[in-house]
Amino acid sequence: MTTRAIAIAVLLFLPLPIVIVVLSSFTSAGYLSFPIKGVSLRWYAEFLGSADWLKVLGTSALLALIGALVSTAASFAAAWAVVRHEMRFGTTYETILLTPLIFPHAAIGVIMIVTLSGLGWLGTFTGLILVHCILTIPYAYRPVVAALRKADPALEEAAASLGARPWRTFWLVSLPAVRPGLVTSLLFSFIISFDEVTVTMFLVGPFVMTLPVQVFSEVLESASPIIAAVSAALVLFTSLMVFVLDKVIGIQFFVERD
């Protein structure tokens, strides 16, 4: 088998589970099955008509949005200090920022139970925001620092030499130069936060629940086809987000340039 044939086979295999889940969401049976038994929109209607499901969806979306904004802003500030101001011990600082990638998420969950309990934030939305920011900062930092290192500081020096004030130079020169990194950071942080389940399972409470944890609980308890409908809706949402991103900003910003 040629390399080309192997590559095609892999590319066809990767989306296969998604296709099966999407098709399973249209089953008329009361349980997950494939091939499906009859075609029905019953499970989509139950998902969209359920106040509980919509509530956890809204919670996850708001949590991911706030977490992405905070993580991106914090990552930009950190990257600016490391790259533009050549902060001492910058390598050590970067290593500390990336430590959430090193530790197992189960261990982080246990650590955060103790930490949030001491702060009185266990089982609260505030506590989840703090944890999700910690988890997403590594994914937010790398694109921003890479874009900042690629940006030519001579442009900022030229703007300053022409009489531009520091804030104007930052707004009109520095920020647009790192826009690809900021957009990538926001997108990755949002997706990572929205999909996070391992650590969040330790920290949700009776009044705060996220969509991934709710789906995981439903899989353990009933494996209802509504889970497939929720998953299919999330796939559609992600596809639409990428489409809008392409139309508004342009996917070409994610491509490396010489």
Automatic annotation (TrEMBL):
<dbReference type="InterPro" id="IPR000515">
    <property type="entry name" value="MetI-like"/>
</dbReference>
<dbReference type="GO" id="GO:0055085">
    <property type="term" value="P:transmembrane transport"/>
</dbReference>
<keyword id="KW-1003">Cell membrane</keyword>
<keyword id="KW-0997">Cell inner membrane</keyword>
<keyword id="KW-0812">Transmembrane</keyword>
<dbReference type="InterPro" id="IPR035906">
    <property type="entry name" value="MetI-like_sf"/>
</dbReference>
<feature type="transmembrane region" description="Helical">
    <location>
        <begin position="120"/>
        <end position="141"/>
    </location>
</feature>
<feature type="transmembrane region" description="Helical">
    <location>
        <begin position="225"/>
        <end position="245"/>
    </location>
</feature>
<keyword id="KW-1133">Transmembrane helix</keyword>
<feature type="transmembrane region" description="Helical">
    <location>
        <begin position="95"/>
        <end position="114"/>
    </location>
</feature>
<feature type="transmembrane region" description="Helical">
    <location>
        <begin position="53"/>
        <end position="83"/>
    </location>
</feature>
<keyword id="KW-0472">Membrane</keyword>
<feature type="transmembrane region" description="Helical">
    <location>
        <begin position="182"/>
        <end position="205"/>
    </location>
</feature>
<keyword id="KW-0813">Transport</keyword>
<dbReference type="GO" id="GO:0005886">
    <property type="term" value="C:plasma membrane"/>
</dbReference>
<dbReference type="Pfam" id="PF00528">
    <property type="entry name" value="BPD_transp_1"/>
</dbReference>
<protein>
    <submittedName>
        <fullName>ABC transporter permease</fullName>
    </submittedName>
</protein>
<comment type="similarity">
    <text>Belongs to the binding-protein-dependent transport system permease family.</text>
</comment>
<feature type="domain" description="ABC transmembrane type-1">
    <location>
        <begin position="57"/>
        <end position="245"/>
    </location>
</feature>
